[in-house]
Amino acid sequence: MSGEEVILGYRVSVKSKTDCVSEITGWLKDGKKNKYFVCANPHSLEVARQDGLFRNAIKAADLIVPDGIGIVIASRILGGNIRRRVTGSDIFLGLSEKLNDEKKYTYFFLGSTKENLQKIRNKMGTDFPGIKVAGTYSPPFKTDFSEEDNRLMVEAVSRSHPDVLWVGLTAPKQEKWIYQNRGRLDVKFIGAIGAVFDFYTGNVKRSHPFFQKIGLEWLPRLLSEPRRLWRRNFISNPSFVIRVISSRIAGKKKSR
Known about the structure:
The protein has helices spanning 17-29, 42-50, 52-59, 69-77, 88-102, 114-127, 147-160, 173-181, 196-201, 209-213, 218-224, 226-255, and strands at 4-7, 10-13, 35-40, 63-66, 106-111, 132-137, 164-168, 189-192.
């Protein structure tokens, strides 16, 4: 497909954040239903190796953005064209800036706590007054949702008829939930943006722009949350790179 390249079996976008936002805007204007995007990083693609549902959820996404410097490095190793990251924050803020001028689109936020959702609602009113927050819903904090949990979540969203649904349940739960329930939702576009809910309200601080620019956004976060993030950085990332290098070598052998 145009604008994509395959990394370990996943169709990752090579587009800039501006072009990704334009594509999503086009879906909204064309009246498309249940389009969704996910963020790819080395850790998520490693987790997906052992989680078939998560793997299917990523592969079925209409847009997979390279959220993670490891994906950019993988593209270079494989001779691809991805030159920079496109994060969940990039998509959320970029789309919000664009839709704010239209003054006709509505959002729904699913995930996080009631307190944080209220912060999001308040901040949206200040930052993007041209976008209406049609509703919010804080689901129970548990590993797996029951059918009743899912029913209530779907009903809350569909009752509000939003144009855009932002899901912040953390990976891989949010991607799997979207994949399993999108056919039941009355929405045009869905974004799996995890920690962006907390980044946006300031509950969790993003790394300094300097670290973001040089591809080391993960470093300050690792130093502040070593117990939670060590596996991602010292097991998942090296394993991912090894697989990418192996894929590159295998590709060269086939071309001989």
